[in-house]
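Lab notebook: predicted structure, single chain.

Context: the supervisor wants predicted structures on file for every construct in the current expression panel, including those that have not yet been purified. This is the next one on the list. No modifications to the sequence; it matches the entry in the shared construct table.
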Amino acid sequence: MNTFTARGSTGPRDLDLTNGATDVFLDVLTLAGCAIARTPWECHLVLHFSDGQRGSLGTAGFDLGELPWTADRPAEKAFLDRLIALALTRYEWDRLGYDPPYAIGCLTTYREMVAGYEPVPVAAPAWSDWRVPPAPELVARCAPHDLFAGHFGCRLCDRDGQSG
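Prediction complete. Output recorded below exactly as produced.
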């Protein structure tokens, strides 16, 4: 079980997903995110989704407060909302090779969590400094799918990382 939380949100505060549902959630967020990420912070966020739960199962959940929000947090939060909104349109889902019947509900809940959350800049992030661009090899695009390579390669090329 993976739990995505938004402590302090005025909306829903958690989203509990099985390992399979987490893979689907991260697949659809990665498809949308790779299409629109431009800044270093945005690329790091999408890489976080792309690499999520690929090293070991049950480790993908996190609280929105753990993200290394910066002084540009309104734009960062707006990006996360745009990313989820694009995923909600079923953007590129035809490339998944499976139908994710519950993804819309998960994305809707997550979007409500983000909407009710007020990010706070992190002075000393536990994660890397997302103001610094990711290593070029991490944001290199997979030729067949145009997704970030990340640490584990393209999510769609890695069929073991897909659920259905």
